[in-house]
Design a protein that fits this description.
This protein is an alpha/beta fold and about 270 residues long. The chain has one domain: Metallo-beta-lactamase, Chain A. Helix content is about 20%, strand content about 30%. The protein has helices spanning about 25-30, 35, 75-80, 90-95, 115-120, 145-150, 235-255; strands at about 5, 10-25, 45-60, 60-65, 105-110, 120-125, 130, 140, 175, 180-185, 185-190, 200-205, 210-215, 255-260. The strands form three sheets. The protein has a seven-stranded mixed beta sheet with strand order 1-2-3-4-5-8-9. A five-stranded mixed beta sheet has the order 10-11-12-13-14, with no helix packed on it. Bound molecules: zinc ion. Zinc ion binds near residues 114, 116, 216, 219 and 261.
């Protein structure tokens, strides 16, 4: 199953890194289960399944990948805890199955550095050193996110891998942004803090056609309601402010939207 949408000059393809399970209450925060259970099957541990979707943009200036799934970074124990499932293979194999070549990727954008978004940016070789999955790409994240991923604390340590950007340290094709930036014509990286302090979203502006990659600001289409904010967001009031501002812009300007943790079509709109 492949999900694609096309703008005028850009084409977008969703690439899956599989799915994993997370406590439903952990995701839905202050929203009682009675409201969200109609959208999810819940297992006997109260877990719901989340897709792990990445986005490829075929841009006139080259390929852009947004987020990379968890790659090979989960230990066996962690993969079991999160019930990682990859019936179609991992992100890289799905990427290649769509006819894309890792060497053709010009830019990798990481919305943030949590394991399920950044783990696939490198892979470990047989000698135990990290190799770049997209050897010719520049990687873009924010300075704040990089700092927080390195400087973990008791609350954040479960979400970051210690060596997330190993091989991509600043100065070696990793760009740590401090403000909004247009990295290629019509590709805007915009700070959108809340889930983490350094979280960013991507707005592809292809003339009449606009597409927002929300990252974990709006992880699933069911989170299109403003007060639906995950309990794992570190700064929920920031999330609230960002969602209000950006969703009203999205509505006014008719943005298409990409929800990276939808189980099914990540381009799917809000539920009825
Ligand atoms: Zn996530």
């Amino acid at each position: 199953m492949s999900y694609t949408v096309s703008g005028n000059r850009m084409k977008f393809t969703a690439i899956s890194d599989g799915s994993f399970a997370l406590d439903g209450g952990l995701m839905y925060g202050i929203v009682p289960k009675v409201f969200w259970r109609k959208w999810h099957e819940v297992d006997d541990l109260n877990r719901i399944r989340l897709g792990m979707w990445c986005l490829v943009c075929e841009h006139p200036d080259g390929l852009i990948v947004v987020d990379t799934g968890c790659g090979d970074k989960l230990s066996e124990k962690q993969a079991k805890i999160f019930d990682l499932a990859r019936p179609q293979g991992d992100m890289l194999s799905c990427f290649k199955a769509q006819g894309f070549n890792p060497e053709d990727v010009r830019a990798v954008v990481l919305s943030h550095l949590h394991f399920d978004h950044s783990g696939g940016v490198t892979r470990m070789d047989d000698e135990g050193s990290y190799q770049l999955q997209f050897p010719n790409a520049s990687v873009y994240t924010t300075r704040t996110e990089y700092k927080d991923a390195v400087d973990i604390n008791e609350r954040t340590r479960g979400s970051y891998f210690p060596n997330t950007l190993k091989g991509y340290e600043p100065g070696t094709r990793a760009y740590l942004l401090e403000e909004e930036k247009e990295i290629l014509p019509g590709v805007h990286l915009m700070p959108a803090p809340g889930h983490t302090r350094g979280h960013q979203i991507v707005l592809f502006d292809d003339g009449e056609f606009k597409l927002a990659y929300w990252g974990d600001l709006i992880p699933m289409s069911t989170f299109s309601y403003v007060p639906y904010i995950a309990a794992i967001d570190n700064y929920p009031m920031e999330t609230l402010a960002q969602k209000k501002a950006l969703l009203s812009r999205a509505k006014a300007e008719g943005w298409h939207q990409f929800f990276c943790h939808n189980m099914n079509n990540p381009f799917g709109g809000p539920p009825e």
